């Protein structure tokens, strides 16, 4: 099916009123585009390394909405125009031009599955729940993952860097006779790293994420991997600055902490995460774009509680691994 897309060219000032008006008319799925500068709060919440380069802010904005052909869209469009005319009496709508186009009705919910196939990281097979274990991978540790639309599949270089380091340090600890290994997974998403830790022999996982969709995603993936949810605690919140999450995590009780986030977040996290690790505990970071590698490495090295053990790279991404020394 094809949908009619309507784009209103207006002003940043009018966006909220226009959006509210469309919602009152029963129009859902509104898209807003503008060039307004990102605030500090916006950029902190985005957790990205490189901010998008926006054109100069000229005060204009575009509000788009979709109507199904044959659903009385012309009558609805007339109502939209009437409401806009009324709004123009007390707010600046700018150009107020409406542009019409056609767009495909794609299966956005399931389209990503086309690109997710089994892959191997060291001796670990990661595969979607709907595919069988390939014959050549029968002897590998298998992780089944269905991230849905909210989280990644684990195929990204940053996740692979984390899994490789996790695999290596889990084996070193087990060879050294460490029992009941506990793992802290900050920014768990689909739960793939925590699940990998469980599959590799960890006793308990404590995971955090800012997105409450993680709770459902992790629960589903634990079930897919036949793992006991009682050994895998997931808390929605920010370990960096939320006292309740910090208290729930506990102090000096983890052998390994994982953070596959991004450099700006790691720079904040390293100031807090050390207190949750045991002396000698390992802090594995990833999600660091190469331009930020030295900044992150230097910050962790400058933390009196850490010593940097290694820096690993894959593609344009880096992973810094450190040990708590005090």
UniProtKB/TrEMBL annotation:
Its EC number is 2.1.1.-. Keywords: Cytoplasm, Methyltransferase, Ribonucleoprotein, Ribosomal protein, S-adenosyl-L-methionine, Transferase. The gene is prmA. InterPro entries: Ribosomal_L11_MeTrfase_PrmA (IPR050078), Ribosomal_PrmA_MeTrfase (IPR004498), SAM-dependent_MTases_sf (IPR029063). GO terms for cellular component: cytoplasm; ribosome. Methylates ribosomal protein L11. It is found in: Cytoplasm. This is Ribosomal protein L11 methyltransferase. It holds the Pfam family PrmA. S-adenosyl-L-methionine binds at residues 159, 187, 209, 260. PANTHER family: ELECTRON TRANSFER FLAVOPROTEIN BETA SUBUNIT LYSINE METHYLTRANSFERASE. One of its GO terms (biological process) is methylation. GO terms for molecular function: protein methyltransferase activity. Belongs to the methyltransferase superfamily. PrmA family. It is an enzyme of class 2 (transferase). It catalyses: L-lysyl-[protein] + 3 S-adenosyl-L-methionine = N(6),N(6),N(6)-trimethyl-L-lysyl-[protein] + 3 S-adenosyl-L-homocysteine + 3 H(+).
